[in-house]
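Quick look at the format.
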Amino acid sequence: MSALPEAADLEALRAFDTPTICNALEVVAPARRATGFNRRPLLAPFPAMKPVVGFARTATVRSREPHPRGMREAGKLSLAYYEHVAAAPMPSIAVIQDLDGPDIGLGAFFGEVNSAIHKGLGCAGVITDGSVRDLDVWAEGFFVLAGSIMPSHANVHVVDVGIIVNVAGMVVAPNDVIHADRHGAVVIPADAVKAIPQAAALLARREQLIVEAARQPGFSIEALRQAFAGAAEIH
């Protein structure tokens, strides 16, 4: 099992957007080229928020019916979930799968209260295929990607904690390293974290050569061919 990345290594990844992280992963972990990221769109209610990086804390929720064992059991499970969110390593990112099938997102698990609780516990944000609400009073700086925005929490309750989840096609296990921004989210293998910045810088130099050529007056297929050849020589 790979050692957990250090805080400084995670912080270094925040300098990049998530598409750049995905590009870099194609270099350092090519077998994951078509896996590890959300396959369906997620909403970014606060698109100006900077990227977040952290360790996944996973759970599943439902909202169509009340908890089958009543309020007391629902409360115990909720507390176990918050303990999971607050446990080391930090920072955490909540990754929540909604199990309600065709009614997915019926009730919002995250709003004013849960965004405040999670931020207070050291959580950097939430990624969910369910719904969120209370955007006008959302905890400041608390990142969110969601499947929808809805007005009610209905009967929302935690079903399971600390398990493998599938959120919009992204399969996530507890303590997976997650990078997310307004474009979406991706799981970064722990042993690839240190190599990402160097790979991202390499790709940026290659892309910049092509982009600069494309922006020149009189850009042509021949100029493009030369730019591709020049980019291939950058190592």
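Next, a different chain entirely:
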Amino acid sequence: MVHEDESSRSNGDPSEQSKTALLIIDMINPFTFPGADELFPAAHEAAMSICRFKQRAHQAGIPVLYINDNFGTWRHDFHTLVTHCLNEPCRGRAIAELLAPAEEDYFVLKPKHSAFYATPLELLLHSLGIRRLILTGVTGDQCILYTAADAYMRDYGLVIPGDCTASLSAQVNEQALEHMRRYFRADTSGSDHAIPPTPARTLTQCE
């Protein structure tokens, strides 16, 4: 089995960036599930980092993929979920406003924790020529973790910026990041390391 080492993840290598995709996991979300009260403050803080990171991804030509639970609502598609979170008085509206998808972004609905399980994600990544994934979103110890495990078994390089993930507690999130560093060879340093920052004036919509 072939694995990427740290040198192959250099954020300064344009050829590596062309093989990279940014995944935003479960952030378009009404946050009405059990535990959402505890999770939301950390999720909103992560959303601000993801917003800035997404802008840099667009500027670098890195495709952005929204990976979202369908929350057991099989009659709704992703656009219906986005519209609900943007227009209804739900807790997740502030995050949806920060991270509303652009026309060029992709989306995949998932029925379970992993972005790969029973979804077309692998086919989409193959069609885009992707070999390196940047995972962001919620929660670090569940959907991020299971997605990372499935990605690792498929030989994708992994970057999981610590400031772009959230769990029910900071301790639980750090434990998940440590697990992914140790067992999946993930780079969990901050988002500024994965894609170079852009000037602050281009990031005001994320504040």
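The two ends are 43 Å apart (CA to CA).

See the schema section for token definitions.
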